[in-house]
Specification:
Elements: E1 28-32, E2 38-42, H1 63-69, H2 74-88, H3 96-112, E3 115-123, E4 126-132, E5 147-150, E6 158-166, E7 183-187, H4 193-202, E8 207-211, E9 240-243, H5 245-256, E10 261-269, E11 272-281, E12 291-297, H6 307-324, E13 332-338, H7 346-354, H8 357-362, E14 363-369, E15 381-386, H9 393-405, E16 411-416, H10 422-426, E17 432-438, H11 457-460, H12 463-482
Parallel strand pairs: 6-7, 7-8, 8-9, 12-13, 12-14, 14-17, 15-16
Antiparallel strand pairs: 1-2, 3-11, 4-5, 4-10, 5-9, 6-10, 11-13, 15-17
Helix pairs in contact: 1-12, 2-6, 6-12, 9-12
């Protein structure tokens, strides 16, 4: 659960001049996270006519823009983000954690009065690991998520506890005299993975933790589920986990200061069903009228709390659902929260495949929000990403909103890039685009916590960027829907 400092200034109270960057800290929101941890985030505190952080000039809002901007609250959005990334945590497609998130999102839209449905579809099995410490002994740091990948070719649905031994490269000469019953840390090298696991088994180890190689800076390597194809017909008899770069360094730092005992558990998630969450409020044009969609994916990769990817886009949709619920529009407003995006856009592609052509033709634009709130300093450009690289209704409306909000220099040209759910719609000719904060030079410049256990509120969320994202998308979508 989250708790908030009641002395914080509301989001749209008139304030003194705000700096040009995203680091104004005169007002902060103190958020209680897991355990006793707290984080203080800068709170957006600008009036409707104030120059926004990072903008080029003060806004020139239309009366219609003001209907949306006056209501948006990143503080409310943060409540959803805490629930998704801190309380639920990693939301792996088709697993119980993803379903918890789907139910939470659906309840939110139900309470707002939307017509809300879950759209189920089957997805592939998943294999996860969990690292913990026994009740007695040294504890793992709580600021890092300790979910990992697990090998499908090793022991599953099992739990072992043992002292930890770091055997580095994993050659026989790297092993101490006796590792029987112990958990070994081994550097992961793809072409040696089966050899090092076999060495650990022969030495009597109780489990193997393969340590991801460091990624090229500034990126960080995430968790992985190691494949051991030579063991497909005869599984390795002990659990084999694949940990992220940040988890690797923490484990080695702990081990360097004294003995460490860990419990490692593996789980096979089989016969899985993922869900899209769909919520709509019918417009004045009626059942056969046009549709404007606002969307995001709510699942994550294994081991990632997904605060920015894509808890931020999900929270944006949930807050805009509250804002737009009572503002009349000609078009129907439909929100799509996609399951299993991280496995290859599965949820959004399933949704599009089920739509008859007549329904596809009703959709004016799809505003897909993926990673809209990173606090990474270099992510100063707001990217308009189109799968075919061409301008369309979604990119044009957001660019127009950016001009009205004073952000035109920080908005990219329409840039060709897929790899998010806008692609599913553009593949069948529906106007769509992906919107996110990324590095200035290229949309490939993603923040270091991307797809890692460090994608947390504390390390990877800016409420100011989230607020600006909500203003851009909210005013653009409303402009499309009211016409």
């Amino acid at each position: 659960m989250s708790s908030f400092d009641d002395t914080v200034t509301p989001s749209h109270e008139s304030s003194n001049s705000i700096g040009s960057g995203f680091l104004n800290r005169r007002r902060v929101l103190t958020v209680a996270l897991g355990g006793a941890a707290t984080v203080a985030l800068p709170v957006p505190a600008w009036a409707a006519n104030d120059k926004r952080p990072g903008s080029h000039k003060p806004p020139k809002l239309t009366p219609d823009d003001r209907k949306v901007v006056a209501q948006i609250s990143s503080r409310r959005a943060l409540e959803h983000l805490v629930k998704l990334s801190e309380d639920i945590g990693p939301r792996i497609g088709g697993t119980k954690s993803e379903r918890k998130a789907a139910d939470y999102i659906a309840r939110h839209f139900d309470k707002l009065g939307y017509d809300t449905t879950l759209q189920p579809f089957t997805v592939a099995d998943k294999f996860t690991g969990q690292i913990s410490t026994p009740a007695r002994g040294r504890k793992l740091p709580k600021d890092l998520n300790w979910q990992t990948g697990a090998s499908a070719h090793a022991a599953l649905d099992t739990k072992v506890t043992g002292d930890v031994v770091d055997v580095r490269a994993g050659a026989a000469s790297d092993y101490p005299a006796d590792v029987r019953g112990k958990i070994v840390l081994v550097d992961y090298v793809a072409n040696r993975r089966e050899q090092v696991v076999a060495t650990a088994v022969a030495a009597g180890a109780a489990g193997v933790i393969l340590l991801a190689a460091d990624a090229a800076a500034p990126r960080l390597a995430g968790t992985f589920s190691p494949t051991l194809p030579g063991s497909a017909n005869s599984p390795v008899p002990i659990p084999v986990l694949g940990v992220a770069q940040s988890q690797k360094h923490r484990l080695r730092e702990l081990l360097a200061t004294g003995p460490l005992t860990l419990t490692v558990a593996t789980t096979a998630h089989r016969n899985l069903t993922s869900n899209n969450v769909l919520a709509e409020r019918r417009g004045k044009s009626g059942a056969n009228g046009p549709i404007v969609m606002i969307s995001a994916h709510y699942d994550t990769v294994i081991g990632a709390p997904g605060a920015n990817d894509d808890g931020s886009g999900t929270a944006l949709c949930m807050e805009l659902g509250r804002v737009l619920k009572s503002i009349p529009t000609n078009a129907t407003i439909r929100f799509g929260l996609w399951g299993s995006e991280e496995q290859g856009l599965i949820g959004s592609r399933y949704y599009v495949r089920q739509l008859p052509q007549a329904e596809r033709d009703r959709i004016l634009a799809v505003y897909q929000n993926d990673m809209v709130a990173t606090s990474w300093d270099p992510a100063t450009r707001y990217w308009l990403l189109s799968f075919d690289g061409q301008d369309n209704r979604a990119t044009a409306e957001v660019a127009a909103s950016a001009r009205r909000l004073g952000y035109e220099p920080q908005i990219s040209p329409v840039t060709q890039r897929g790899s998010s759910d806008h692609q599913s719609f553009q593949e069948v000719g529906i106007a769509s685009a992906n919107f996110s904060w990324r590095g200035e030079e290229s949309p490939a410049l993603l923040e270091p916590p991307y797809h890692t256990p460090e994608d947390t509120i504390a390390k990877n969320i800016s409420l100011e960027r989230l607020q600006v994202s909500m203003e851009l998308i909210g005013t653009a979508a409303y402009a499309t829907a009211r016409a």
